[in-house]
Design a protein that fits this description.
Radius of gyration: 56 Å
Helix content: 40-55%
Number of strands: 22
Distance between the termini: 9 Å
Oligomer: single chain
Length: 516
Amino acid sequence: MVYQVQKAKSILQSLYGAFAAGLLLTCAVGPTAFAHAHEMESSFTPQSAPRPLKLDEESVRAAGIKLAVVATGELSPVLKASGEAQADQTKAFKVNPPVSGVVQSVLVKQGDQVQKGQTLAVVVSSEAASLLSRLLGERAKLNADIARATTQIGSDIKLADNDMQLAEANLQRQQELFKEGIAAQKDFSLATSAATSNRVKLATLKQRLSQEVALLNREMAVTTDNYREQLMVMGLPSYTIDSAIKTGQVKASLPILAPVSGTVTARDITLGERVDTTKEVFAIVNLDPIWVMVDVYQEQISYVKMGQSVSIVTPSGDKVTGRISSLGSVVDPNTRTIHVRIIVDNKGGIVKPGMFVQAEIAMPAASAHNHFAQGRPGNSHLSSSESEHDDFVVPDAAIQRDGNASYVYLSRDGSYIPQSVKVVASFNGQTQIEGPLNPGDLIVASGAAQLKNQTAINESFDEHQGENHEDHKKHSEGTPESENARLLTAFLGGMALVVVVLGAVALWRRRLTAKV
């Protein structure tokens, strides 16, 4: 019995020794494993900038690479918006024939420049001819009345004049006889009365003739003016009316005149066509100035003000200037834009109605300041004088990003070299950057993304080029991840050994106690 107890104690001491060894192994391996894992993890660095890339001409064309010359500068504070040109609604006119008739001639075509009062076409009007004939008929009737009055009253005046001359001669003879005492006072008085009566009669007839002729002439003037007014409303020019009055010949060739100066934007009239007053035969628009209507997004509304200067670029690249004259008061619920009207100087007729154009709206200085200041954290100015590098403006497509890093591709001797830069601000497709660049350097303005992808492919290929399966397996086994896994397994194994030893010791002590 004593022998068994001693033997149990010996076994128990062995188990305690094993436990101590396992515990020491765990304490030694655990910290070492985690320290080594941490060391391996810290040895990793973020992905470095891509390596330079050299491409042949075919690859350059396939990637769509286009270069741009680097120049110093800052972003231009300009908003860009697409718009459509429209005629000034206050200077657009529709031209209708003043009367119905047959087109005798057409003198202008669409696109012609015309002046106010210029003849556009000539229409032969039966209505005008009828009215002009009535005028001539009225005038002829009145002229006949004047002639008749002149003849009738003139005959009476002639008789009265003869009677007056006889009475005057008789009065002169009676006066001489009365002076000699031959004639009686009574005869002299009768001769005087007869002469006076004939004078009054003659004067009355002359006055009557004058009044009647004047009345008829006044009636003719009123009648002529009335007809003239009607004819001129129809569009018949005054000189045509005067010519008809003078010659007595009716000419009803009615010109269609331009009501304003401008451009003929539409023509709907042909030779020999019968037209009426309801048909629009011409459209004339004064295209200087012209309107341009653009839509500005609600996020940009605060940058747009009345009177701002705007540069209008046509599809052909021509530029004209204008100013904002009207801002919409309601945001379109579908497009979330506001309508902006721009009045554009168009003396050369460069901008045409219906043309789609690009509007470049100059931002107010304060708005531009606030906008670009956001691109420089902590800065409240636009100048880059405090930076060790100059500022450059490049297209957005030239900037490539890798995490928080930004870079551009420099083109030198057929190679494309990534160069790290700092992005200051971006606006309207342009980016302002800082970096160790020089004016005149060539950068990739289009196709930089393709270069980045190609570089990544090449680096992946170079990394594994020449490795067989076993090499790749060994390479994988030597990675930090596999080393960490082995160390962690060793630590967990030590901890399991400790647990097993403790369990065995507890079980043995229980059995030994039971036997004693």
